[in-house]
Amino acid sequence: MDRLEAMSILLTAADTGSLSAASRHLRIPLATVSRRISELEEHLNVRLLHRGPRKLVLTDAGRGYVTSCRRIIEEIAEVERTASGEFRAPQGELTISVPAVLGRTHVLPIVVEFQHAFPDVSIRLQLTDRMVSLAEEQVDVAVRVGELPDSSMIATRVGLIRHVLCASPAYLKRRGTPKTPADLARHDCVIHEGHTRTFYDWEFVANKATQSVAVPYRLTLNLSEAEVAAAVAGAGIVRVFSYLVEDLLKSRALLPLLETYWPLPIPVSVIYPAQRQIPLKLRAFLDFAVPRLRKRLGYESG
């Protein structure tokens, strides 16, 4: 039995929550996953986990053993990175997960600039609005929009963005300018259709209280950039993240609406797993990208 392989399989099963999930993640047969863990239990003469129909549960012995295995495998990985020179010069592959539109507009230009400066680092840039698990999906660093839950991740704030309402001058000349959220009932609004529902309730803040307003619409789109293009073309009023329309607002191709009712800003953060020694490729990217992302988002750190 290859004990290191068996320990790695056990860790993956514990992290993903089931033997079948570990099989898919590691791309090895389910029977192999089950056999390796059984061999490990036989070698130790102790049961490490209870195999439930939906989710496995570690025994008391299993929890302690998994903690030790994690430390051992992290130390081995650190030794290998040191031997390969990863801690002496930025090199290797870096996997980055970012929200799709924010990634295209702000992160991708920074990545291209970074690769000019560090030619020995290759990048896997995942543009997705799905909340990925950094540990399970082997992601080195991610950009997150919104308040962060308590976790073992290290977080660095790089910006504040907000939802803004705007429309083209031509539309406002034709239909008038709303003065309160209730006035939207007499307007055409361009609505964002998400993965699960159409968002036709817009939130506003009045007298320090949040209120939702059901808005009428004639056009529904599933891409934020298309919503902006529709607004510029005069289709109606849109509610989008501020970074999508900053230049258009400055040029007055779009005009802001109901500014006193806009919701509070939303934080943007760079997160990465806590680890004993950060690989140089990740440290180099953080040092390079964080100040540039803050500049692009107009954020001054305290």
Biggest sheet statistics: 6 strands, mixed
How much β-strand is present in the residues? 25-35%
Shape: elongated
| Count of DSSP H/I helices | 9
CATH H-level superfamily of the largest domain: Periplasmic binding protein-like II
Helix content, binned percent: 25-40%
**What is the CATH architecture descriptor of the largest domain?**
3-Layer(aba) Sandwich
Q: Would you count the extended β strands for me?
A: 15
The unreliable regions are none
Number of domains: 3
Q: Provide mean pLDDT, rounded.
A: 87
Gyration radius, to the nearest Å? Answer: 25 Å
SSE topology string: HHHEEHEHEEEEHEEEEEHEHEEH
Straight-line distance between termini: 53 Å
> Could you name the CATH topology of the largest domain?
D-Maltodextrin-Binding Protein, domain 2
GO molecular function, one term: sequence-specific DNA binding
Family: Belongs to the LysR transcriptional regulatory family.
Keywords: DNA-binding, Transcription, Transcription regulation
InterPro entries: LysR-type_TF_proteobact-type, LysR_HTH_N, LysR_subst-bd, WH-like_DNA-bd_sf, WH_DNA-bd_sf
